[in-house]
Amino acid sequence: MRGVPGQSLLGPRVYGNSVPAEPALIAVEIVSPSNPENDWVGKLRDYPLMGIPLYLLVDATRRSVTLFGEPEAGRYRLREEADFGETVHIPHPFGFVLDTSVLLPY
User: What are the CA-CA distances from residue 31 to residues 11, 22, 58 (Å)?
Assistant: First the structure.
């Protein structure tokens, strides 16, 4: 299954630009250089309220990856940051280490 920019994939179904939040286990966003506030502020505010357990934010301008997790009371309690070249542990149910050395900056 391949991702298409601007689309959400959930199993074999393609939902276009929207997907029900309940079955989502992680949201992964690549920060738009023209509108970073959308990912760093708006989605960081909305995703924990929607109950999305993990939010992985790749910011190629900052050359960093940030993982947010453990949503509680409308915000994420966990924040793990890594510069490109470092690793980030993606927890259960995924359970792998993300090697960011292959990511390219803008």
Answer: 24, 23, 6
Write the DSSP symbol of residue 98.
Answer: E
Structure tokens at 68: 């947010």
Q: How many Å apart are CA 22 and CA 45, to the nearest integer?
A: 16
pLDDT per residue as tens digits for the range 26-73 = 999 999 999 999 999 999 999 999 999 999 999 999 999 999 999 999
Q: Dihedrals φ, ψ of 42, to 5°?
A: -60, -55
The structure tokens listed for 96 are 């792998």
| Torsion of the alpha carbons at 86, 91, 96 and 102, rounded to the nearest 10 | -30
pTM of structure:
0.81
Query: Hey, what are 55's tokens?
Result: 């939010």
DSSP letter assigned to residue 86: B
Using alpha carbons only, what angle is made at residue 92 by residues 5 and 68, rounded to the nearest 5 degrees? 60
Beta-strand runs (E) in the chain: 9-10, 13-14, 26-30, 54-59, 64-72, 75-83, 87-90, 96-99
